[in-house]
Write a structure and sequence with these properties.
Blueprint (H helix, E strand, L loop, with lengths): L1 E2 L4 E2 L17 H17 L14 H4 L12 H4 L5 H10 L7 H12 L7 H11 L16
């Protein structure tokens, strides 16, 4: 995902930060990416729950642990009106494992250094970076007749 502070796509955590023009239709993607990141230590067998991992944002976003290092995303603020509603809604996101298809899409975007999201999002990132950040169709380009 595009990191505003560095002006680059972060290869190791493709979805950690996002640009402000994330389309409403892709809101789910940001939360899916956040779940992917938070569940990495669980998938790796380091911990049984993301809240057990020392460096996890889950401790702040799902358990309410104070941290000066974390600035919640605007979408986190929309999970509820009160702090307890937000914490509860965030914890609810982690009741189930991610779909294999979601994991594959995130890994593919990371490995190929592409932005994960809709066309509008990808075009915005391409303009900001001055390079293509999405997969082209396979095969030769069609000739102009």
């Amino acid at each position: 995902m595009f990191n505003i502070s560095t002006g680059r796509i972060n290869e190791r955590e493709p979805c950690r930060r996002s640009v402000p023009f994330l389309p409403d239709s892709r809101r789910y993607d940001l939360l899916t990416c956040q779940r992917y990141i938070e569940l990495n230590p669980v998938r790796a067998g380091i911990v049984r729950h993301p809240g057990e991992f020392r460096w996890s944002d889950y401790r702040h976003n799902g358990q309410g642990e104070a941290s000066e290092l974390i600035t919640p995303h605007l979408l986190y603020g929309e999970l509820g009106r009160t702090k307890e509603e937000k914490l509860s809604a965030y914890r609810e996101l982690f009741r189930y494992q991610l779909e294999e298809d979601d994991i594959d899409q995130i890994r593919k975007a990371t490995n190929e250094n592409f932005a994960l999201g809709g066309k509008r999002f990808q075009n915005g990132i391409s303009i900001m970076l001055g390079r293509r950040v999405f997969r082209r169709k396979a095969g030769r380009p069609k000739k102009d007749v």
